[in-house]
Design brief:
Strand order of the largest sheet of chain A: 1-12-11-7-10
Number of helices of chain A: 22
Radius of gyration of chain A: 24 Å
Largest interface: A-B, 150 and 150 residues
Shape of chain A: globular
Number of strands of chain A: 12
Largest sheet of chain A: 5 strands, mixed
Oligomer: homodimer
Distance between the termini of chain A: 68 Å
Structural class of chain A: alpha/beta
Amino acid sequence: MTKRYEDASWKESMRIKLDVNNMFAENVGEEHGYTKADVDAMQEKAKVAHKSIKAAKEAGNLGFMELPESHKEIAKEIKEFADANKGKYDNFVVLGIGGSALGNIALQTALNHPYYNLNDEARNGYPRLFVPDNVDPTRLKGLLETLDLSRTVFNVISKSGGTAETMSQFLTARAKVVEELGEDAVADHFIATTSEHSGNLIKIAKEEGMKTYYIPENVGGRFSVLTPVGLISAAFTGIDIEELLAGAAYMDQICDTDELWSNPAYLNAALQYLADQDGKPMSVMMPYAHDLKDVADWYRQLWAESLGKKVNRAGEVINVGPTPVKALGATDQHSQVQLYMEGPFDKVVTFIEVEKYKETLEIADGYEDISGVSYLGGHTFNELLTVEKQATELALTENNRLNCTVTFPEVNAFTIGQFFYMYELATAFAGELYDIDAFNQPGVELGKQYAYGVLGREGFTEKKEEFDARPEKNSDLIL
Amino acid sequence: MTKRYEDASWKESMRIKLDVNNMFAENVGEEHGYTKADVDAMQEKAKVAHKSIKAAKEAGNLGFMELPESHKEIAKEIKEFADANKGKYDNFVVLGIGGSALGNIALQTALNHPYYNLNDEARNGYPRLFVPDNVDPTRLKGLLETLDLSRTVFNVISKSGGTAETMSQFLTARAKVVEELGEDAVADHFIATTSEHSGNLIKIAKEEGMKTYYIPENVGGRFSVLTPVGLISAAFTGIDIEELLAGAAYMDQICDTDELWSNPAYLNAALQYLADQDGKPMSVMMPYAHDLKDVADWYRQLWAESLGKKVNRAGEVINVGPTPVKALGATDQHSQVQLYMEGPFDKVVTFIEVEKYKETLEIADGYEDISGVSYLGGHTFNELLTVEKQATELALTENNRLNCTVTFPEVNAFTIGQFFYMYELATAFAGELYDIDAFNQPGVELGKQYAYGVLGREGFTEKKEEFDARPEKNSDLIL
């Protein structure tokens, strides 16, 4: 059977587009807008960056670029595994945090029914999905109380196998399963997604006989949505993960050029970089579609953790990094847009627009005698949301506020795959422009080490001592 | 029966605290930290601001300050209405957007079971709560499909009665109720919360015989959580709204001083203001408690829409306003903290800590042979989350990053009421410091008018023409 994503014209019709008109002086004025010459001036740098990315990929250091190809077979296998288990579980729980959770949430919100967990009919036999993504005792206890564990499967996701939050969740869920269902039940109720070669989780998984999936060594957490990290929960909830990878592959092909003017990932990163350099450190992502709100949250990790760095590659202290901010249209017109419109000129807004929503809903007629209400009847919510986006875009533009738009023809696995890949590549490219390592996160180590120390992990007693020796709080400054 | 919030010592034990130690040079170093002299230097300004706030209150212009007193009786009446209807509805739906939605969501997440809508036992006979808070066709259609309308009540919230999103939601929900249950069902399935004296919703409500609650004329959307806007859905889901108001009253009393050093609302606003002036325009609110995450979202509207302003009171163009950012601990340690730790020195982080979570959950023992995992066993998730907060706080402080902490003894209606009030008052005070009108939102008008024009609302044809005459997009800049 031919898949739709094997049809070139369907693919072309589903291409996501980047519209940067409102980043330029013609539209937003000379004080803040860019000129084509500004972009041209970056072309040489772009060529060098492109070469550097290619070389890193060749050297096996940019694993995320290999996934659309390398994970085709793995996706097939995951799909078969999920299909074989359909009907066996009522609940699928992801135990993971950060990069091990955000992609799962983004896929779920983007591609499944908006009230998936509450609507049996819409779910059509697939399990409910839960991603607690934290170690809040109230929430976690509430979850464990709510689920029938005999009908629940947990996917434990930690590349290192040492993530304190995830391993704590796992220990506790496992003990509850053992208590209720017996030791033998562990293999049937837990999947492990981790490094194949190192860490404690792979050891435990083998010991327990858990089904195991691997995270490639050269793919970091925030780039891992197209590995089993994101694919398993998606497949279990009925998402077409092969189409998702096909979307990523399509964007890889679109972006296989070092010409800024024809590479949406590079051009986007270049303009965002320029804006950050020019005193606009905040990058707002504002989809006008509820199903894309958690994709904006996924982006928030990708952009912040990759580009927020103390040192450049030469080791010089530079303390750089734009701050990604997520917003939601039309909702945040009633919350954030006042600031975006009138506050300091310190932001770039990236709108996301959807040409064809999954559903059409008419605004019903009514109150013909009240013109301030009746004008709405006969329109659709689709129109209303689109018009609100265009109206906000125009108002921001007329107020000289930099903005751009990513357009989705539809929200489906193919377009979401494109989006993930486009932003991952933009991140790698931005890393080149900032001249930093976009793939590490040294800044979170210190806090982790203090926590390990206090919790009594072996090898961290020194950190515990440092923690205990922290200055006492001045009680005059607590009120 | 005596209520616990009538007991002075219980109240004192439930007082939320503001810890600003890490805003000062002693802890975060001289380059970024403040000195006591910096605060003292603002004392005169604070006295003037306090007078101005008092005068505005006397003049009836600061309605939010009256609510703890003026809404005592109204809260009682709402509670009686909700109690009388317990068991009648399975679903309570809020139709509203922005300030008419965020408070409802914040209260629900903060005070009800974490899986409230999915857990019948935890819900204990109260209806499920839905706040679609947008006009997304997919989501709204999905919601209407999911609900049994014969067991559903909608609270339509719009002060002006002209909010396009809310009135569209209402028209459509109403038509569905009429279609399924008949014309006569409207009064039984819709509540209106709106201005008593003006607008279309009050007209409609009277015509339809809907139960009606009023939003005081002198309370704007983002300050309205303690009016029927937030109180009705809370009461219907079992939240003690009288305790909520008592919390606000308690904070009002605490903050009844013009001394910066003893007024947590003022001191907080003053320090945030200083930081913004000193090149730190981002104010991150990061609770270490899942139940406070939507309180941070509520704050995001309050702070952004109130303080993001183009002109000062003299009408001079100043384009000011800090950008509030919401984050969540420990989750965002795996997403945003890398940036907060190593990026530019452009943020203040406000942690929220909870001393006693609603539940205690132990981390189970296991894998005694694997020390990198077994050290977790025997601790609680409560400890883990608290230690992670303190570890992150210490690491940020050692990296010279400004931060402060709001501590909740517990998350309950009394402490949440304090929190709302403290931040509302801080916002009014910050408005004085910026010398702007913190209670209007002129910047959202233009976008609204374009939308009205395009949708054909009477009186907006000129705006439609302007919209239609917008410059065409250059297709070279779309890729």
